[in-house]
Amino acid sequence: MENQELALQIHYFMDEENRHSINAITHNECEKILLSYIQEIARLSQEKNLELISNLSEEGGWKDNLTILCKNPLFIGLAGILLGHFISPAKDSTEKVKDLIEAASKIKESNLTEEETAALIKGEEKLENFASIYYGKLNSDPQVVKVQSILTNIRNKEQILNTAIDKKDFEGHIVTKRTRKYKVLGTNILIISPLLVEVKRLKWRGKYNGKEIPFIMKDHDFLTDVHNRKVSFESGTSINCDIEVEETIKIRARYETIEYRYTVIKVNQWFDGSHAKIDGKEYTYKE
Prior knowledge:
Blueprint: E1 4-14, H1 24-44, E2 51-59, E3 62-70, H2 73-86, H3 93-108, H4 114-139, E4 144-153, E5 159-166, E6 175-193, E7 204-208, E8 211-217, H5 220-227, E9 238-252, E10 255-271, E11 275-278, E12 281-284
Parallel strand pairs: 8-10
Antiparallel strand pairs: 1-3, 1-4, 2-3, 4-5, 6-7, 6-9, 7-8, 9-10, 10-11, 11-12
Helix pairs in contact: 1-2, 1-4, 2-3, 3-4
């Protein structure tokens, strides 16, 4: 596949029309975040040939010009979507992920696999953090009042993207977090999907307090029983366990969302329909 060349211009509008300078610390930190953002898009799209070339900045506020060399058409499609999310008023996360999946599926002319979809969603969370830091820097600089991005295909002059965001909307991208951890002892989890082979990016799934959750299993004795096939995971298999809950409260534009991460630190008892292990002793049920 031939190399593709894209031209990306980031235009920082200043508080005075004749101001053609920008705070060096603000600019350098924002440039670093932007480059990391583009590299993350390359990782998500499996673009192996990415090159980023910085060109001379222009006056007119402050304009950064970047040449992007790539080969993968998926990268180009995702770059158009994701940079559009980045340099524009914040969208709801669900809408952003929907845009990504639709764009990627259209480019590939097929539906994404569950694993590819999960990678995009996880990647979107990382990109959201980049945007939060970027706009946190710009929001604290009184001279920057607007940012515009223009992405163009150099060969055919097609404009892929032209978006902008005013200072009043910077805060919509800024996410603050509060995290706390606590333990719940002697609770029950119904196993829905055990992880029989250790794959770090995947998690167990179970039903806890009436809702389906992903969780990490860290009880080595229980994992040994699983690997030795002592647990059969029939319908209704459950564990009585101690868990650690990590609760993260995200605040963006005065709206709160709460995320939970669960880790099983000890399995006290397990039941699989025909076998059980209680206080270290194994039992078999016979009809």
